[in-house]
């Protein structure tokens, strides 16, 4: 795994590119939007600058990391010599399918292809691939350069060689992998969404306000962040999409999105990115 291609330079993609480069890999960061990859690279630069100011990254490491990342708006340039391709585009099954069909025709036959999806089926994304044994899930967590966990998801046709390569890569970049089979929501999203939806129902029913519910989990169960604040950071629209998918796939009532979530998304209250969700967010 010498060369890593990261497709999508947004919230997750730029972080994945950063940790891949910090782990010693030549990294190509691609985005379909003109200037998107450069913007992602700038976010990496800011992360590293903050790390230097906090004493967590030394200046030499910052320079070496930035020297290993190249931004590009050309998909063939990004994947033509990649040993591992990690997709981090929006959570759309059709979008991911089309992207990987293009990637498979332009990447080396030996390349491992991985999706960063948090909930979509690995097998469904790989449906049209000629080499599904080279395809798997690598689900990172936000912010990528801080969070230690990576879910390594095995599809029904994922081969042992691809799994071994994925696990080795995760460990090389200093993360801890857990192996999960292809099931809606995997381990983390399924549990996290269930907790978040129940917290929303409690707000809806007037059991307690968001701050009190979050502090109950932070102080009583030692969660680093309460479920409603986490929902604001993830994005209420993102949570709504995942919850709707899990409700449809698993046919379990506790995944039915509550009315408060539908209403807040309709009102544009998407969390931190819109400035307001269950909390108000200032710059």
Can you characterise this structure?
By secondary structure, the protein is an alpha/beta fold. It has two domains: 179 residues, NAD(P)-binding Rossmann-like Domain (Rossmann fold), CATH 3.40.50.720; 84 residues, N-(1-d-carboxylethyl)-l-norvaline Dehydrogenase, domain 2. It has twelve helices and eight strands. Strands 3-2-1-4-5-6-7-8 form an eight-stranded mixed β-sheet, sandwiched between helices. Helix 1 packs across helix 2, helix 8 packs across helix 10 and helix 8 crosses helix 11. The radius of gyration is 19 Å and the shape is globular. The relative contact order is 0.10. The mean pLDDT is 96.
The helix-strand sequence is EHEHHEHEHEHEEHEHHHHH
Query: Beta-sheet strand percentage?
Result: 5-15%
CATH architecture descriptor text of the largest domain? 3-Layer(aba) Sandwich
| Radius of gyration, CA atoms, in whole angstroms | 19 Å
Can I get a quick summary?
With 283 residues, this protein is α/β, with parallel strands linked by helices. Helices cover 48% and strands 14% of the residues.
What is the topological layout?
Blueprint lengths: L2 E5 L3 H12 L3 E5 L5 H18 L5 H10 E4 L2 H5 L4 E4 L5 H14 L5 E4 L6 H4 L9 E5 L9 E6 L5 H13 L3 E6 L6 H17 L5 H11 L6 H8 L1 H15 L8 H8 L17
Helix pairs in contact: 1-2, 8-10, 8-11
Which key terms come to mind for this protein?
globular, 283 residues, 12 helices, N-(1-d-carboxylethyl)-l-norvaline Dehydrogenase, domain 2, single chain, alpha/beta, Rossmann fold, 2 domains
């Amino acid at each position: 795994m010498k060369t890593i291609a990261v497709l999508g330079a947004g919230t997750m993609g730029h972080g994945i590119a950063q940790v891949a480069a910090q782990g010693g890999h030549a990294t190509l960061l691609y985005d379909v939007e003109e200037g998107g990859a450069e913007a992602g690279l700038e976010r990496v630069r800011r992360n590293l600058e903050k790390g230097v100011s906090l004493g967590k990254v030394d200046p030499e490491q910052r320079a070496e990391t930035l020297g290993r990342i190249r931004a590009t708006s050309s998909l063939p340039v990004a994947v033509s010599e990649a040993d591992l391709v990690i997709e981090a585009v929006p959570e759309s099954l059709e979008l991911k399918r089309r992207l990987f069909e293009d990637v498979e025709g332009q990447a080396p036959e030996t390349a491992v292809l991985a999706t960063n999806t948090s909930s979509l089926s690995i097998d469904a994304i790989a449906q049209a691939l000629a080499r599904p044994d080279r395809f798997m899930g690598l689900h990172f967590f936000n912010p990528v350069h801080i969070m230690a966990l990576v879910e390594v998801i095995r599809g029904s046709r994922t081969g042992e060689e691809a799994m071994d390569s994925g696990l080795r890569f995760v460990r090389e970049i200093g993360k801890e992998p857990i192996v999960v089979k292809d099931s809606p929501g995997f381990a983390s999203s399924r549990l996290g969404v269930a907790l978040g939806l129940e917290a929303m129902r409690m707000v809806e029913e007037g059991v307690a306000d968001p701050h009190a519910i979050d502090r109950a989990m932070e102080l009583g169960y030692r969660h680093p962040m309460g479920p409603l604040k986490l929902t604001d950071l993830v994005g209420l629209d993102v949570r709504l999409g995942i919850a709707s998918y899990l409700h449809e796939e698993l046919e379990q009532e506790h995944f039915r999105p509550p009315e408060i979530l539908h209403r807040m998304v309709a009102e544009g209250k998407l969390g931190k990115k819109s400035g307001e969700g269950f909390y108000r967010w200032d710059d």
